[in-house]
Amino acid sequence: MVKAEFYCDWEGDDPDIFERDLKELIDWYSNVRIKRCLDGSSPVEYRLSRAA
Asked: Which residue range or ranges hold the Integrase catalytic domain (predicted)?
């Protein structure tokens, strides 16, 4: 699901740029963002800490 803020606020007209920006958002959301419920870790950091 795409966040409404991303879709509604995007002002470009090139579908390739939209796709690139969307991939960057998904990567950030899945790997970088910090979550309080994950002890202040990103999802990747949390998974790595649990795997060790």
From this structure: 3-47
